Amino acid sequence: MSAFFVSVVSSFVSPFVSPLQASERCESTLKKEKVSVRYVYDGDTLQLSDRRRVRLVGLNTPELKEGPAWSRSVAKQAKSALQQWVSLQQNVYLQIEQDARDDYGRMLGYLVNAKGEDPAIALLEKGLAYAVVIAPNIQKQGCYFAAEEKARLADVGVWAHAAVIRAKNLNKTLTGFSLVQGKVTRQYHFKTSEAVVLDDNLVVMLKGVSRLPSLAGKEVRVRGWIQARKFTRDAFSTRFTVYLNHMANVEIL
Q: What are the strands, taking DSSP E only, across 142-189?
């Protein structure tokens, strides 16, 4: 098992489960609604025949029109894979998660077929998507990260490329969903959140998590949507911010 599944901070309990445990948790207890897919926008977003838009939960595929050439290529493969999966199913079902809609009005949930098979698993195992957790929608968290780990170990899809950006190298062209790594140079504790600064250039704002021990000097890798948004504290400020609400998106190396 990679270091991704193990925290080196003794007081931090890893949110991950082993591949065996994950396989036992792939089934969701959420109610299934039979649906018809009208259009697939990309590897993680689609439209139903009743015009509802659905954002698949627990994963993120690269953008079709943004990022380097290899990333756009993976995005096309992810879209094609989801389209093919939908076309091969006699019946498709939607399972709506606890937090049912995002800020864009899209339904949030999982697609499955009559056997309960989830296309996101195949996307993650082929390296066509990244696992990501946004609480409280966490039913398939362990299963998805275990699927991603297979692609990481095989160096396929996104993992065949330099997918991790150094925090100190962030610029406005590198915003959006990214894996970013850097050294913890500052750390703050607030009433409702924790803040970890990487390379004095990116602040990781963690809401709804337990108080973190000191991570000073440690290498940390995070995944999420990077924003060109300043964080200022006293005389210090960073240029970029990422907002997270679950420690599954944080890897302490």
A: 164-166, 176-189
